[in-house]
């Protein structure tokens, strides 16, 4: 509940810093179809661009994003944003990518019993929904292109290193039998399977079940889940972790080693984690935390509708 108040206060600060025309661009009704939206590609999207904001409003937009992310995840997000300039240089400046090409949009009135917001641009999409002062997170998408920048054989920047390395560590720690169950395809898909769909399901669980892993392997799987939940503020991560249970699957597609296209996903009750390195050289990563029932506030909105004063 404290987090909901913080989000509302920061959202109010942001909207108050905008001109009337900017407010019209930055706001939609709560029931607008664009609320159930995720677009991590360099495509047009609704909302107000950071490039059009004065410093105070731009800082308020960043503060709003920071309410939804833990400090490490916020650092990852800022690295993702900065990589737009790196990618633009790699592409010989042809596409005009820039680190202010991110948009913020608020759905509904932050003082209402239902509202939400999104901060989004290339390789970054964070959606939050608030109902009856309960915050519902997801989707939370972070990508990186390039996924790794080196100099003299050493890493300069690798924002999603933990996500890649821990997933591979889990796979390689398994017994041959468990690894055989976990690897469900020799070739990885070209992108995460949930993609930009407004719904994260149905994607059938696949791979190896947590119960079929040895204790050390289960611990690594638990660490992987905690890593993605750790993108959220402690209040949200703890509440979400308490609902997951132990019915967890881990699936891998593609070669196990680095430097080539590979993919994994973790599935549990109302949980979908996906990681994909989408290019043949293994240097373009997509990751997402989604909730098949809770995406875009599905869980808190169902509880809101079931509450007093609402028809079934």
Task: Please describe what this structure looks like.
It is globular and about 60 Å long. By secondary structure, it is an alpha+beta fold. The chain is 35% helix and 24% strand. Strands 1, 2, 3, 4, 5, 6, 9, 10, 11, 12, 13 and 14 form a 12-stranded mixed beta sheet that branches. Strands 7-8 form a two-stranded antiparallel ribbon. The protein has 9 helices and 14 strands. The mean pLDDT is 96. The relative contact order is 0.15. Strand 12 and strand 13 (271-277) form a beta hairpin. Helix 1 packs antiparallel against helix 3 and helix 5 (161-173) packs antiparallel against helix 7 (215-229).
Features:
312 residues; alpha+beta; two-stranded antiparallel ribbon
Q: In total, how many beta strands?
A: 14
How much β-strand is present in the residues? 15-25%
- Largest sheet descriptor: 12 strands, mixed
Structural class: alpha+beta
What integer value in Å does the Rg equal? 20 Å
Tell me, rounded to a whole number, the average pLDDT. 96
Listing every helix as H and every strand as E from the N terminus to the C terminus, the arrangement reads HHEEHHEEEEEEHHEEHHEEEEH
pLDDT < 50 stretches: none
Helix/strand layout:
Layout: H1 2-16, H2 20-26, E1 27-28, E2 48-49, H3 55-68, H4 71-90, E3 102-107, E4 114-121, E5 124-131, E6 134-144, E7 149-151, E8 154-157, H5 161-173, H6 176-182, E9 183-185, E10 208-209, H7 215-229, H8 234-241, E11 249-253, E12 262-268, E13 271-277, E14 285-290, H9 298-306
Parallel strand pairs: 1-3, 9-11
Antiparallel strand pairs: 2-3, 3-4, 4-5, 5-6, 6-14, 7-8, 10-11, 11-12, 12-13, 13-14
Helix pairs in contact: 1-3, 5-7
